[in-house]
Specification:
Length: 384
């Protein structure tokens, strides 16, 4: 595809998200690495996060199906005028330079010697802010303020973009150029590890450290979604072993909330998937089940698996608060916390969205059934 693009040198590119082998986001990044021509997504997927991801990966516009032909043509003409015609910039290109590294602010690109790498808009803003103030320290608040000029972001988004910029710099051969000044989470965990469990101060610190650890892991996995195809390894895995690993990781969370796991999985039950991503999915689902079951002593979370006609079913079932019927059709939407989000402070609205995204990429199906006041059952279907 890239070779054909270089041969044809199109003036504008129209992309869909759902494509064979690799999705439109992937090809958008590939095109952006060699060209600044306008890219417009045209897709039936109308979710907010799909549109955000398209623009973050270098697209100039996003049109949802069904669409009006006249509007599409008008947008194409507008992009052509902006890049090649009457509105094309004639002034000197804006850029920031430091020690041989150049960041081009309009074309969202950085260059060192003859090597070039395409950036997202947020990565460009982050690099510009750091380079303009080098070698001084730049506060978290200053960076967030700059990023907020583009769109509202939180600490997790900032962490993801710092990780991405580090990776981009490493691709150019620049290592250890970006440092963050913080108290390592591992130091906090080691500090409280040897303390007496009865001390309420250290119990509270340990709880916060566990919560931070889960949040940090979620951020890192979100960052890995950008290169999912390269990070995805299919193998035969034991569902029982995967469930046991996830339960062990959350043992303190279970105990602290007086919720206890009940596992009904035959050790011989195997599926073809990625062990690392399945563990991540199970940790997310179990965390939700524990969180929404807390408050009543002796609650159980059941993890069971069984064979169906032409598939293997894995279920995570809790006896918690359940989900209001009015919220059920939106639980997989990004940032949606619903009515329960008003009562549970840890709700981010991203857990189920990420889980569905991951499982969809691995060709597994996820379903959710819930009754308010009775509990929730999440089902994952592995085709055999």
């Amino acid at each position: 595809v890239v070779r054909q693009f270089e041969q044809l040198k199109p003036h504008v590119v129209l992309l869909d998200i759902n494509l064979p082998s690799y999705d439109g986001f992937y090809w958008c990044r590939q095109i952006r690495s060699i060209s600044t021509c306008p890219i417009i997504f045209i897709s039936a997927r109308s979710g907010k996060m799909d549109q955000v991801m398209a623009l973050e990966n270098g697209a100039d516009d996003y049109i949802t199906k069904p669409f009006e032909h006249e509007i599409v043509m008008a947008k194409i003409r507008s992009q052509l005028r902006r890049v090649y015609g009457d509105y094309a910039a004639s002034h000197e290109e804006r850029k920031v330079e430091l020690d041989g590294l150049t960041v081009y602010l309009e074309r969202l690109e950085m260059q060192l010697g003859d090597r070039k790498i395409q950036l997202t808009k947020k990565e460009t803003i982050l690099l510009e802010t750091l380079l303009r103030r080098s070698p001084k320290l730049v506060s978290r608040e200053t960076i967030l303020e700059k990023l907020w000029d583009d769109s509202f972001v939180d600490d997790n988004t900032l962490s993801v973009n710092v990780t991405r910029v580090r990776k981009r710099l490493t691709e150019l051969g620049i290592t250890d150029a970006l440092e963050t000044m913080k108290t390592p989470l591992s130091v906090i965990e080691l500090t409280v590890e040897d303390q007496e469990d009865e001390d309420p101060r250290f119990i509270s610190i340990r709880e916060e450290a566990d919560q931070m650890r889960r949040g940090l892991e979620t951020v890192l996995y979100v960052a890995r979604l950008e290169t999912f195809e390269q990070d995805f390894i299919v193998e035969s895995i034991s569902l029982k072993a995967a469930a046991e690993e996830a339960i062990h990781e959350l043992k303190r969370f279970f105990i602290r909330n007086h919720v206890y796991p009940e596992m009904e999985i035959n050790s011989a039950l195997m599926v073809h998937s990625d062990a690392k991503w399945i563990r991540f999915v199970l940790v997310q689902l179990l965390s939700n089940a524990i969180k929404y079951s807390s408050g009543s002593h002796g609650q159980k979370v059941t993890i069971q698996a069984y064979e169906s006609a032409r598939s293997i079913i894995l279920e995570v079932k809790d006896q918690g608060v359940g989900i209001p019927k009015s919220d059920l059709n939106r639980v997989f939407h990004p940032f949606f916390t619903g009515e329960n989000g008003r009562h549970f402070k840890e709700s981010t609205g991203m857990g189920l969205y990420i889980v569905k995204d991951v499982l969809t990429r691995m060709n597994h199906r996820i379903d959710l059934v819930s009754v308010q006041g009775e509990g929730t059952t999440v089902t994952i279907t592995f085709e055999t």
